[in-house]
Specification:
The chain is an alpha+beta fold and 215 residues long. The protein is built from eight helices and nine strands. Helices cover 30% and strands 20% of the residues. The strands form three sheets. A four-stranded antiparallel beta sheet has the order 6-7-8-9, with helices on one face. Strands 1-2-3 form a three-stranded antiparallel beta sheet, with no helix packed on it. A hairpin with a 6-residue loop joins strand 1 and strand 2.
């Protein structure tokens, strides 16, 4: 595509090009490497779709398991080129899943990056307003409002909930192989653009969210 033109200035004979594609989201990664350098470009599925609107990190932001681990994980950031979640979890005596969630949240705040070619986080800091990252996510804000307004209830079955819409009730199922919702957003995108606000609300209800509870 035309967007790959940004790699043209770094292409030279003898360099290697690696391509990765996520079949579920349509995101692709294009890496040019050689002579001790690497250039990586990530492309969203369509030109009009920016990564900020894809919502892939919303599921972790909606949970609460990262909150207890976040301060201690952030304290361990010392400009490392590679952050090993398992090693950090062992050092901090916390579950690996909690540390991984904390790293994902730190990534959303611009405090760590993710090396897609090696599959690891690394420490670097971007000039973000750290207090605004989660609050500027409209789906997450809407989900917390649904919970605060009492519009989400457990539906008897394990990890199932009913979420009140404007004129209809949506049924949500939180599953290991992918969450499901009966709303139009989910029917259209099938999770490729992150969870809908109803799934986020259900996760907040089941997993707990101190920000919501304090509202």
């Amino acid at each position: 595509t035309d967007r790959l033109g940004v790699l043209a200035p770094v292409l030279a004979p003898g360099q290697r090009v690696n391509v990765w594609v996520d079949v579920d989201t349509g995101v692709s990664g294009w890496e040019v490497s050689g002579a001790g350098t690497r250039a990586l470009v990530l492309l969203s599925p369509e030109v009009y779709r920016g990564f900020s609107g894809e919502g892939q990190a919303l599921r972790q932001l909606a949970g609460s398991n990262w909150e207890g681990a976040l301060p201690s994980v952030r304290a361990k950031l010392k400009w490392q080129s590679e952050l090993d979640a398992a090693a950090l979890a062992k050092e901090l005596d916390r579950p690996v899943a909690d540390v991984e969630a904390a790293l994902a949240v730190l990534g959303s705040r611009g405090l760590v990056g993710f090396d897609a070619t090696r599959g690891v986080y690394f420490h670097r800091e971007l000039p973000f307003d750290l207090h605004q990252v989660e609050t500027l996510q409209p789906r997450l804000k809407a989900a917390r409002a649904l919970v605060s307004d009492g519009k989400v209830r457990v539906d008897g079955a394990q990890r199932e909930a009913v979420v009140e819409g404007s004129d209809v009730q949506h049924r949500v199922r939180l599953l290991e192989d992918g969450d499901r919702c009966t709303c139009r957003w989910f029917a259209k995108h099938q999770g490729q653009r992150g969870p809908c606000k109803h799934i986020l609300a259900a996760r907040i209800l089941f997993e707990g969210d101190t920000d919501t509870e304090q509202r």
